[in-house]
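Section 5.1 Outputs to date
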Amino acid sequence: MILDLLIGFSYIVIAAMLVYLVRRGRPEVFFRITFLLLAVFLVACAGTYYLAVVSPHRPFVQLSRYVKVITAVASLTTAVVLAVLVPRLLLEGAKEHSILMLDPEGRILTWNAGAEHITGYRAEEMIGQPLAVLSLPEDQARKLPEEELESARAFGRAETEGWRVRKDGNRFWANVVITALKDEEGNVRGFAKVMRDMSERRRAEEALRASEKQAVVGRLAAIVAHEINNPLEALTNLFFLLGEHIGDEGPARTYLEMAQQEVGRIAHITKQTLGFYRESTEPVKVRLSEVLEGVIKLLAHRIQLRKITVTREFFEPSEIQGFPVEMRQVFTNLVGNALDAVAHNGTVRIRIAPARHWRNPQIRGVRVLVADNGHGISPEDRRRIFEPFFTTKSEHGTGLGLWVSGTIIHKHGGSVKVRSSVRPGHSGTCFSVFLPSSAQQATELRFAG
């Protein structure tokens, strides 16, 4: 009797957990109904065990019949629904893989949901088509699809990676495995082809390579700047001595002063380069107005080339506790993106002002606005712009700029908000960055999440 009670209790607990999963889990009606049917089945099973406990003392023949009928109906319905559900789950699991069957000549015989998901083509569009239809035109001209089939025919299996084309014309990087299907006599009766979309992995690898190259370039720049310092100091001293032997007026004095100014510019550039590389390990006072002025000077060529108007509104105090190089990196990304977004003769507005935290007014800091009148960011893209490797610049962007910027801002205890519009005539984007003034407040905000 105790065993029957425990089994019945277990059934009810399992049923309750299934109902909980329905409430918190997948929203599709199909899956909800399936789990609810399983719950009904388990409750009915529990009822039969409880009846087995009480029936020796008080027979419930009529009730027992009803419970058995409910159990039978729930069991049969659950079995039928699961028979439909399991293939569907298997199909969903295969959506990331395009699994095709080909005839001996390489024509497509079967087309699964994964192939449609990856390429955009429906089965009726692709059955009977040659395998080469998914390859780039230049690869078709070089007969690469035929070479893949011949390699699989000769060695039993061929694996390649390369660009393929979707129905909408966009390219994706694919991993392709073709296996020859042979009969008992060794004759090829067809091929099985499995294709996976590896575009995300390729973008990650390219971004990693670009990051490594930038790190190497940074180290080389620091070495070059360090080596230039000695001859620069010698030139400065020589110009000083030369000035002692030239009169205060005349072309020679003018040319000497121009040369001294240019050497001074070179010295300033080398000092800045070494400053970028020799970052402090502890936060220091950073005046954001100076950081933004340096960023604008750095991007001056792009600004002048495209005749972009950059307006500044800098209100003091604009000091925070942080890392200067990381702040330059953040605002170089934000201002650079704004310049990319606007057309020729566009406008970028930069505003720095003392502010308070959005949720906690007791925390003081600095708010930086970077706004542009460019084409704007769509709501779909806006939700993803801080994700790694997501970019709206196609092949020209790595998708790491805003992700890294967001990470740095959070590291400094700050936060960033984005407002954007894509309405014609009223389009534009505004990034609003708040950074706390003190390192202690930054730490509190960082751990507060």
